């Protein structure tokens, strides 16, 4: 042990610590300052940034032995507090810098170090600083963070006051459509939000810490599991294996379609007979400390017989491939698409025919917060599981039978989440902490390190797509044909639904009358397929939007004008045969056209043989909801000092709190209450009704409508005959109920049939994307210099939130286009190796143009937004690379070596 006298946030402290411990662990665990977050834990993300003796450092990489006697340490807690925000913290809230907020303390500390050095930086200097110091954010696309630093610097220089920077409530008190900062922003920017790992630091004594024994191969038969040696290790309370699981020991994938050849019960909680993928959990060590649990996990002996591992769909589809789940064929689901006439004769007679083959990679989510959860028995003896779940009621149904718990004895709670982007549409560790709590009867906690987080959570499923368009002499597409293969990894959950997404979105946006094709879902031994923002559509649009450019080229037509000719117009229907609810594309393209023409001119002017510049276009569409008559429920209750809104609008970081507050405030406008009078109660199956998962960009529409419905009922009950409203006391005195259940069902929707025909969603989001790129012809490296999106997401609830959603989604699209992948289990195991974009990889120049067509079925005209910006920005980038260089990249990511090979 070492002793140090340090000054921590201006206060003298004596610290006694293990010299090998990290400063991050000591600050968080021993000193209780959990504002400093641990993301990657390996110096790549900056979540743990602190300032020591005037220098910005990564506390996860700083061992206590390197902390000098008398060191002066500044953490986020020393920068400002919720009632005394530093200008940077205020600016972060005003610019929407904290979405999930997990990166915010690290960024703010980093920005403080920059402004201490240079109080008048340029935007480029701010970007350089974040790049150099490796401050990573997965939510915001960086631009709002640069905006925040620039405005904070103005306050610190005395050019504007903090009051001038702060959000001003409009005179009419209405917050709908404004930049009202989300309610959780202040806690996020001050480091006072407790995420899962912070809550674990604050669990009661006696909590057991868990470590997993995981498979290091991708496919094997389990011959034996020997825990004897591990049980004797220090601090071990129990080693849990499949034998300890009381229930079915399976997580059900809740198969969506009866034609699925599997039954959905294919994912073990703890492996019993087989290992299906790298990282599969085989046993759980429960011990007094995390270190003891991890040491003991090393001593569990698992004897395996390795089986051939099928690491991609074609390998698992080969004739000689064995069944990964014996009894279920590796191709376990097929989805036909058939609209209009047979396409064969139409292709033969078409004036123009183009075809191409495309592959979209296994995109990793790369949230800043690694997966985390804990479990205990509550005061009603309910097994209570806290996690990052963005579908608490859904996950309840998926894990209950596997655990062997009575449904009413299982409770799921969502912790504040540091981003999920859909990976938490799947249960991850919920059932693991659940079985450990049942087996030990104690509170238990489990944190994945970043390696586990990458290798043992779901990924975007790769699609292999063959696509063909037949067009008439003017370029109007008359027929589309094509098959797609979905590599869904070993677990079937939602694999059939994802395959259907191909049928819904390949070619979406265009009124193509005749379509044929077949999608196949394939079981493999690579990472299991989980949801990822825009689920199934980036795969679909890579094919249909790049092929559109190929058609334009073949015809000698401008790609934007060819799109203009083909986009939905009255009388057209979508690939599923549904009439669009609005026809905004022509107006959207009209808005983009002058900018596009200008961009083309600029690219031509600035292009040199060393740096070739180009412009690419794509369109994107996505549905808001789960297929068919999706529904949501909330409770609205009048309380003495306002209104309580109880919902399970789970928060990934997108802004569920703001969404709920903004919608509720708008619905309650007749009561003229201020936003602070609306109390939000969220995300606990014991308290909140089933609002459905935060997937499919559904909550603003589904839960938004349910909130509106509940508020209307309350207002009706409060209304007096003279048109004024009863007070709380008057309601109580007259014995009028105070609590109303708001519900909404998309009853106008029908799920798709066996030909993928139907009206699956009531509301869609529409986007037109334009990427401007420069390709270095020596290295093959592509830089996106500017990005423009025209978005129709209906009426906007919160402008700050939707701007943030769009910036962040586009940044993920640029990563998808150029760098991100999870293929090589040895290489793709860190943020940098997985290709996470840092500040300088994303343009500072991102323009958003809104077309707000009101939606009949959206609350106050709103559609969703979350997934729109990741539907097809990558296709615009791929098209721009072609425009710049003539190199057509059909398999992403467009790594420099691929582009270079094309150039040669
Ligand atoms: N909104 C609005 N006006 C509109 C539409 C939406 O102000 N016209 C706001 C909503 O109030 C909400 C946000 O935009 O705060 C997103 O709303 P919506 O599109 O309905 O999506 P959900 O709330 O259902 O969120 C899920 C969606 C999905 S599916 C993924 S994946 C996702 C996403 O949102 N993951 C995210 N955004 C994310 N953002 C962050 N920072 N982190 C993630 O993991
Ligand atoms: Fe320290 Fe990522 S750099 S947690
Ligand atoms: Fe930066 Fe979520 S706000 S990672």
From TrEMBL:
One of its GO terms (molecular function) is iron ion binding. SUPFAM superfamilies: 2Fe-2S ferredoxin-like, CO dehydrogenase ISP C-domain like, CO dehydrogenase molybdoprotein N-domain-like, Molybdenum cofactor-binding domain. Pfam families: Ald_Xan_dh_C, Fer2, Fer2_2, MoCoBD_1, MoCoBD_2. Belongs to the xanthine dehydrogenase family. Gene3D superfamilies: 3.10.20.30, [2Fe-2S]-binding domain, Aldehyde oxidase/xanthine dehydrogenase, a/b hammerhead, Aldehyde oxidase/xanthine dehydrogenase, molybdopterin binding domain. InterPro entries: 2Fe-2S-bd, 2Fe-2S-bd_dom_sf, 2Fe-2S_ferredoxin-like_sf, 2Fe-2S_ferredoxin-type, 2Fe2S_fd_BS, Ald_Oxase/Xan_DH_a/b, Ald_Oxase/Xan_DH_a/b_sf, Ald_Oxase/xanthine_DH-like. PANTHER family: XANTHINE DEHYDROGENASE (PTHR11908), XANTHINE DEHYDROGENASE SUBUNIT D-RELATED (PTHR11908:SF157). It comes from Desulfomonile tiedjei (strain ATCC 49306 / DSM 6799 / DCB-1). It comes from the Bacteria. This is Aerobic-type carbon monoxide dehydrogenase, large subunit CoxL/CutL-like protein. Residues 4-79 form the 2Fe-2S ferredoxin-type domain. Keywords: Iron, Metal-binding, Oxidoreductase.
